[in-house]
Amino acid sequence: MYTQKLTLLLFLLSGVPASIAGSGTVTLDSCRRMAVDNNKELRQTDMQRRAAGFNRKSAFTSYLPKISATGFYMHTDKEISLLSEDQKNSLSHIGDALSMPALNAAGQGLADALRTDTRNMGGVAVMLTQPIYMGGKIRAYNEITRYAEQIAGDKHRLCYQNLIVSVDETYWSIVQLTARKRLAESYLNLVTTLDHDIEMMIAEGLATKADGLSVKVKVNEAKVTVIQVNNGIEIMKMNLCRLCGLAPDTPLRLADEDGEPLPDDDNEFIGTPDAWESRPELSAMGTSVRIHEEKIKLVRSEFLPSVALTGGYLASNPSVFNSFEKKFKGMWSVGVAVKIPLLTWGDRVYKVNAAKAEAVAAKLDYEETREKIELQVAQCRRKVTEARERYAASVSSQAEADENLRYATLGLKEGVIPVSNVLEAQTAWLSAKSGLITADIDLRLAELYLKKSLGTIR
User: Where in the chain are the domains?
Assistant: First the structure.
């Protein structure tokens, strides 16, 4: 029985979590900073947030007047003529028709004056447009872009929190495995010493060769466990290097590797009962509901009157303000443009109803997610309480296992306790020590997951 228990515990010692690294001695905070500085996904969401900010600023310009300038030049092989060829010929010979030859020159001058000479035309126009009323479209669009910026910020915050959780999980997994390595080495020293003592007892006839072989099996198992744990640590540190943006072979030593710090008993991190309301996922979904409400207004605005003020300056060459002249001349203009939809065959109703249905669906999704998050927070709080209780129990078990092993070792030396009892005591000690390490890390991670569920990771 005790052999099976010890084999199971040795197998558990070889378990490998995953994640985290840096060069030299690094703390948890420095690992977080490196990961934040080098994570591409986090930088991508930051760029998306910045893009959303620029879109919001762009949308605000819709309130302001727009000014545009247009220029053109056109060459044609024919010119526009206000007079027919017969009319031109009649004007040039009007004096002959009236028996007054002197009028021919005046008629020819009139025909020449009416020539447009539009074979080479050029013009420039400067226009100003100021929206006055667009059915609420501009305001709705501004609100949508503002909410989109908030969602982009929530996504960035969520990505940041997920990254911090990954870094913390890896960091504490490495700490856990290094503690297991020390435990495996301590157990190896323990069974090695026992093996030496058993050899002496066999020589004196106080123990059997079967006892010696049982101990040697444990020695070999302990050596294998040390090798497995070392390999696990190397793999996890490579993963930590990846998270922190470092080369996989970067040497790393964690600040918490050598010690066994006690968990923080500060309850402040638990937060207020409704702290999870600011969780980025929930905040983004709530903002999405407001976007759908604005989309209803945006669709409705397409079927409301729109009014805009226009103004500008138009100049052309040839100009027509003093007959036809080969000069650039222009004029100012001011006006009001009104657009009123009259008949849409129910298109407005259909589109508005579709937008309302999408808004209701988004709200239901938000409410369902909110309920799930509330349940998740309650579960995480319970797990923290359970982890603290388990840690306290593990501390007590460790103290009892230490005392039991001490008595068993003394009893073996005095010859009043058999080898099997000592092996059982060592197995119990290994189990208690392993349980304490696990309880310590489980408590830290439970607190981390609670902070994540509350959205309070900073």
Answer: 2-66+136-305+345-454, 81-115
Which secondary-structure segment (H or E) carries 444?
Answer: helix 419-454
Name residue 139's amino acid: R
Mean pLDDT of 404-410: 83
Q: Whole-angstrom Cα distance, residue 338 to residue 321?
A: 29
Cα–Cα distance measured from residue 412 to residue 419, given in angstroms and rounded to the nearest whole number: 7
Instruction: Give the span between the Cα atoms of 168 and 442, in whole angstroms.
Output: 12
Q: What is the CATH number of domain 2-66+136-305+345-454?
A: 1.20.1600.10
> Which uninterrupted H or E stretch holds 121?
strand 120-133
Q: Which residues of 431-445 are buried (b: 16+ CB within 10 A; e: fewer)?
A: bbbbbbbbbbbbbbb
How do residues 207-244 score in pLDDT, each as one tens digit? 778 877 877 888 888 889 889 989 999 999 999 999 99
Residue 3's pLDDT is what? Answer: 41
Q: What is the pLDDT confidence band of residue 19, given thresholds at 50, 70 and 90?
A: very low
Q: What is the DSSP letter of 303?
A: T
The amino acid present at 119, given as its one-letter code, is R
Please state which of the ranges 53-62, 112-121, 359-368 shows the lowest mean pLDDT.
Answer: 112-121
From CA 102, how far away is CA 207, in angstroms rounded?
153
Contact 445, 268 (CB under 8 A): no
Peptide bond connecting 65 to the previous residue in cis, omega within 30 degrees of 0: no
For 209, half-sphere exposure in the C-beta direction (CA atoms, 13 angstrom radius) is 0
How far apart CA 252 and CA 120 sit, in angstroms, is 78
Angle at which helices 209-244 and 2-13 cross, to 10°: 20
Count CB atoms within 10 A of the CB of residue 247.
11
Q: What whole-number distance in Å separates Cα of residue 92 and Cα of residue 108?
A: 4
